[in-house]
UniProtKB/TrEMBL annotation:
Top-rank lineage group of the source organism: Bacteria
One Pfam family of this chain: GidB
Name recorded for this polypeptide: Ribosomal RNA small subunit methyltransferase G
Localization of this protein: Cytoplasm
Coarse class of the protein's main subcellular location: cytoplasm
UniProt entry tagged with the keyword Methyltransferase: yes
Family assignment from sequence similarity: Belongs to the methyltransferase superfamily. RNA methyltransferase RsmG family.
Coiled coil: none
UniProt region (Disordered), positions on chain: 230-249
Catalytic activity, EC: 2.1.1.-
């Protein structure tokens, strides 16, 4: 393992108050990601600076939002990360919030094998890994309507994504969808989908990654009412007949 990060490197995550212990955890996460990536196709981003900025700093961006404070302070709060892949954004957030329970869910077992290795190496006790499709997992009473926040990055178009995420959210909780500038074009359908699901698009927050590595948008959705029992529809239907497009029954 590298001994000490330079001040320049520490600046990548500085605004998230990452102390020495957490920095070491990010170092281990990075090393395992690159090592496992030789066997599994986890990410196309492997250069150290890019991983720290485009994966780690990007994942932590939600911490800046006032809505996240609600998550941190909600009693018995928990966070569900849908389609976590190699752990983004859920695992960087779990490293920085050891007191909040996180569930990282993905449909691909191989990604969860990687995550199990990293979680053990980091000694994290606040992370549970769940294998399955969101459409099925959201039917489990232990997960449906339970979480103070649901996160997702690069999983689906906004209207589809909302059907995969909103059912995990408790009333009054938030869905944080990590998106790029192109999301503007998804908003009208997303707004209609949110309405069907008892949720509302609250706001879109733009931000810039450090070192000019790109523009991002966070779509913040608030859960206003319980999700109607018929959602999510069975696995595959949200993608085939997306809400908000006139294609769904
Ligand atoms: C492009 S990857 C993004 C991974 C990670 N969130 C990131 O930003 O790097 C999309 C991930 O979502 C998962 N996924 C897609 N649809 C899903 C569903 N319906 N239920 C659970 N996981 C799903 C895939 O298996 C894949 O790991």
């Amino acid at each position: 393992m590298r001994e000490a990060a330079s001040a320049g490197e520490r600046a990548w995550l500085a605004e998230f108050a990452v102390d020495d212990e957490r920095w070491r955890k990010f170092e281990v996460y990075y090393e395992r990601l690159v090592a496992w990536n030789q066997q599994l196709n986890l990410t196309s981003i492997t250069e150290r600076r890019e991983v720290f900025i485009k994966h780690f700093a990007d994942s932590l961006a939600v911490v800046r939002l006032p809505e996240w404070r609600f998550v941190v302070h909600a009693p018995g709060a928990g966070v569900m990360d849908v389609g976590t892949g190699a752990g983004f954004p859920g695992l960087p957030l779990a490293i920085c919030h050891p007191d909040i329970p996180f569930v990282l869910a993905d449909a691909q077992a191989k990604r969860l094998r990687f995550l199990a290795d990293v979680v053990a190496a980091l000694g994290l006790h606040n992370v549970r890994l769940v294998h399955g499709r969101a459409e099925d997992l959201a039917r489990d009473p232990a997960m449906r309507g339970r979480f103070a926040a649901v996160t997702a990055r690069a999983v689906a178009r906004l209207n589809v994504l909302l059907e995969l995420t909103v059912p995990f959210c408790r009333v009054g909780g938030f869905v944080f969808a990590y998106k790029g500038p192109g999301v503007e074009e998804e908003l009208a359908e997303g707004e209609r989908a949110a309405g069907v699901l008892g949720a509302k698009l609250a706001r879109i927050v733009p931000w810039e990654l450090p070192e000019g590595m790109g523009s991002r948008r966070m779509v913040v959705t608030v859960q206003e009412r319980p999700v109607p029992a018929k959602y999510p529809r069975k696995a595959g239907t949200p993608q085939r007949a997306p809400l908000g497009t006139g294609m769904h029954a």
